[in-house]
Every structure is written in C-alpha cells, then in structure tokens.
Amino acid sequence: MNVTQREPVLEVKELRTQFDTQDGIVHAVNGVSFTLNKGEFLGVVGESGSGKSVTMMSLLRLIPMPPGEIVSGTAMFNGEDLLTLGEDALRKVRGAKIGFIFQDPMTSLNPVLTVGFQIQESLKIHQNMDDKQSRARAQELLEMVGIPAAADRLDNFPFELSGGMRQRAMIAVALACNPEILIADEPTTALDVTIQAQIIEIITDLRDQLDSAVIWITHDLGVVAGLADRVLVMYGGQIVEEAIVNDLYADPQHPYTKGLLGSIPRLDQKGAELTNIKGQPPNLYSFPESCSFAPRCPYAYERCWNENPPLLNVGESHFASCWWDIENNRPRYVS
After folding, report:
1. Is the pLDDT of residue 272 over 70?
2. Element (H, E) at 318
3. What is the CA radius of gyration of the chain?
C-alpha cells in the first residue's frame, strides 16, 4: 500500500521553537508542518543546526524550558495535542506510545543504573509488570536487538558495554512498550560501518514486526536511501523539500537537496566531480523573512531575497520551498 494512503498517526502543523540566549533569540524551528503515516519510515535529513533534532524533541517537550520555548503549533497524536497535554498525560505517551532513541547512548543511559533496571522501569510504569515479568521481557528485548548472553547483560552497567551494545540497549529501552512511533536521532553516529549496518537492520526488522512508524533523523542522505518511504529535507529550521524517497533522489527540486546529493560519491558515476555547498549556514538569530538558503544558492533572484517561499507542490506528493524551477531553469509561476 502506498505510504500516502495509510492512516496518519501524527500530524504536526506550524511548529515554532526558539531559545532565549545571552546573544539573542535563536529561531531554531520555524513553522514546520508534516504528517507521519502508520507504519511509515520517514527520513529527516539536514546538516547540523538545521532543526531536525529540536523539531522532534519539541514534540515530546524534551527541550530544556527555559531557555527553550515552544512558541506555537500543534502536534496531533491519537486525537490529542502533544504540545498542550498535561505532564501526567505526556508521561504516559513518552516511552509507552512514542519511543525515542537518542544520539549518544552513553549520555542517554543512566551510568549508575544497570541496563536491565532501565528497561524494566519503563515496563513497570507503562505495562504494570512485576519484577519477574519485567525482567523476562527485558531479556527478550535484549535478545531481539541482537545482544548475546542477554540474561547476563541485564546486570551490566552501560560503561561495561561497547558503543554498539549500548546503542542496542538504547533501542531496547525505546521499544520496551511496543510504541506506535519510534524516533531515532542519528542512532548510528560514532559507530563503525559494520555496527551501523547492524543497527539499521535491527530497526527495520523491528519496524516490520511491530508495524511502528519510524522517524529517522540523520545528516546523511545516503543512509536513508534504502530505508525511508518518504524524506523531509530541513534547512534553517524549515522543511525545504518533501518527497517520496525515489522521487527525491531522481528529481531533487530544491537547490539545497541538489547540493547534498551532489556531495555523495556514486558508484554509477565514477570519476564524476563532487559538488560542495559554498557559504555558511544561516544566522538563526534572525527570523527568516526571505529564503534562508538564498545567500548560498546559485539560482537566487530578487523574489528569493524579498519573500520566504512556502512548500510548493512541484509534483505528485512532492513539495519544495523554492521560487526557482531548477528543471526548466526559470522562476516558478505561482501567485
């Protein structure tokens, strides 16, 4: 079944998040809107500082407040707005219905508690299991994520595990209650290539088993090529392109996406020169009144400097935030 025909499980509209710092207000997320469908694998791509992680952490109100503040927006999940839920109701969602795999398992797992305790805690709170039941389930989860001698590992502390094993344990914590949505924030960063491949395989296999929707946050378009059903490309706290994965790779419609794809070595284009995106990321202390990519864009013209483009429909289930039609090398004729 096509991903666009599935039932939505999460609908985010006009999310805005900012941080009050000594140097001024950082506009980290600026009007992000997207839909996640049941069982869908959604890739969220962009360079560091593009707003990927802050967007997803804002949904569960995991950003530090203050200095962070969710200024506006809605995030509808099972008929309730996550951004306005009371703390008690939100705790019942975190971990139980929406799991989060953080980027660094060494700082995300509590170093003074055993791995087994951290998995069992979630099961006791959300599933009302006793010690015996939760320990048996925790062992089963460690086995599911490929940790050998799982029964013994339950009594290990995080520092006693390798980086790959800690990441597997973090996945087990996130999956403990069979969540409807699994958010993975660069879960393979700092792991070697072999372990990366194993972690990716584990999450995709578990997605198929549990029919959970997955949001995979990464800076690497190459990683999501064989994983995602649909991709969101973020830049300057905004979504600049959204498309089904094959369409995005075959026909990128935003200059930033085109630049990202051009910087990836390809086996079918031996000897082809890699491109680079010149310039610096945008200054997020200023609210974007114009296209935030314009200073780095080879196609920028007058309208780009005067008006920030919304996501425009540029094809079937394909949207781009760009006033320039790359394919036809002319401005887009939109009102």
Report:
1. no
2. strand 318-320
3. 21
